[in-house]
Design brief:
mainly alpha, 10 helices, single chain
């Protein structure tokens, strides 16, 4: 999973103010489209839809990667990062999820549309939100993504404990991953609260 430290290493030549404006506009346009709301800039929204259809969501995700955690593009970036980790390393995600769900019963209940919820269900949720097809409540989707990340954080921490006996270097890397996942979970949970209050922009 690409965390904020890795995201900062992405090469970009765009003016930071323009990049921020585009990140926010694209995230708002995507969500407005899913909710059948009139976007503030219909022409921009149409261009974004065409961009996603022609280039894929990865192009928008690059715009969102530097966004603040407490913003809509920042929340969408974190959901995208979770989705990508599931897509790229499904076996590790599934193993750590199983370890974590035993310890995170409350988060597991929030996370799951399927019992037990798992990586594929999270990927499907992220796919629907990021494609602009999600018609449910965004705060619920953000809470579920946060709970999923929290479970993975717990599973990663447990895995790091086991790895400590095998290889301290790998254990340290997995511990950092667990901390990053916990930060992701907290950011997504705060984003859900902000969305309910009408303050997630």
């Amino acid at each position: 999973m690409l965390d904020p430290v890795d995201a900062d290493k992405l090469v970009g030549g765009m003016d930071p103010a323009l990049e921020t404006e585009l990140a926010h506009s694209s995230a708002q346009g995507l969500i407005a489209r899913a909710r059948n709301q009139a976007p503030s800039d219909p022409a921009l929204t149409q261009r974004l839809v065409e961009l996603v259809e022609n280039e894929g969501i990865e192009t928008l995700a690059q715009l969102w990667a530097r966004s603040a955690a407490d913003s809509l593009p920042g929340a969408l970036w974190r959901m995208y990062a979770l989705r990508e980790w599931v897509r790229r390393d499904p076996r590790t995600v599934a193993e750590r999820y199983k370890m974590g769900e035993r310890r995170q019963e409350v988060a597991r209940v929030v996370a799951g549309a399927v019992d037990p919820p798992g990586p594929e269900e999270m990927k499907a949720l992220a796919d629907s939100v990021l494609s602009g097809l999600f018609t449910g409540e965004l705060d619920v989707a953000l809470e579920r993504a946060g709970a999923f990340a929290r479970i993975l954080s717990t599973g990663s921490a447990l895995d790091a404990d086991w790895l400590d006996d095998v290889g301290p270097t790998e254990a340290s890397r997995v511990t950092r991953r667990a901390e990053s996942l916990l930060s992701t979970a907290e950011a997504l949970e705060r984003a859900a609260v902000s969305w309910r209050r009408g303050k997630l922009e």
